[in-house]
Amino acid sequence: MEIVKFDGITNVEGGVCAAKGFRAGGVQCGLVHAGASVTSKKNDLAIIAADKECTAAAVYTTNKVKGAPILVTKEHLRNGKARAVIVNSVNANTCNPDGVEKANMMCELAAKELGISAEDVIVASTGVIGQVLPIEPIAAGVPGLVKSLSYEGNKSALEAIMTTDTMPKEIAVQFELGGKTCTLGGMLKGSGMIHPNMATTLTFLTTDAAVSAEMLQLALSDIVKVTLNRVSVDGDTSTNDMVCVMASGEAGNAEITAEGPDFGKFRHALYCIMMNLARMMARDGEGATKLVECCVAGAESDSMAEIVAKSVITSSLFKAMIFGEDANAGRIYCAIGYADADFDVNKVDIVIASKAGELPVGHQGCLVPFSEEEAKKVLGEEEIKILINLNAGPGRAMAWGCDLTYDYVKINGDYRS
pLDDT by residue (tens digit) across 252-266? Predict the structure, then answer.
């Protein structure tokens, strides 16, 4: 899929290793689902390590049930500092009586090999919920994991965090702060259990820009709201969602400690990274064949536009319509109509668009005639845009989703096996 580019931003290679001072790696340590006897050949244990102490920030799932790694990471980031990340796939380490103990052990194992404090390690897990995490394979794998660290190890680490993902999701960009070239990179896993309450994802970001922990947290919290929190695949909010960022300061810019032009430029770069990662996640929704971008304009406020956009991309009937390439615009009006917002539906216009063209399907609350042949061409593309105008004000917002396919049920019907 295409990367959306932004002014003042240059795309580069390297993912989480693109920024100065960051290495990454991954190994296959042999984690398996309970009752399974065969391990996957893909990496299942990842690490990201900084050459020096970094400022750090994170945002977590809003689910009341939280994975043990989140509880441990929250404690470790109270001082706004971090040096490394360790993460496993296959097992979420959630709803387990010894979960916190195991998460702490993962930090201690990584810290010992790296020669740092365990409190400087971020820990994350993804996979099946409710199965006890076997620490033995991880303990045996950590020495090799740390040895795998490389300034080119981003893809090895990315492979290790994938579960039902079918495609890797990473991006890196460069931008200038105070005459210094800064780099920001990230990788993400996420395919199912994705809904706008910190969409189901593990997202790891690294930058060599100098940014205080307070300003990192402010930027991250704000940008999550307009990127990851606007993605939905299936309406389920995970227990292990986490996005974290580490800033090494090795680019040499004057540290950002307050709002201003440099903070604005950093936020712009962060939005570029996270918006593109959000799009990748939506496109790779479990069983998905299409990316849907819903753009709402003409709302009384941005928040109203967001409510309407989310209402559309979370509609199962709408998602099935996209899969069937059936321009049943009544389903779009239906999803707009039950959005929890107050507006005049008799002013709403709808256009379905893609690379194949634009197709007006609704005007002032009513369906309009269109060519079914042209509709098939527009909906036959991989990326579909739903353009909605409420004709009521300056507010606007975007949200991302995907189609609902037969394969989604197949994937989740036997997830543990």
Answer: 999 999 999 999 999
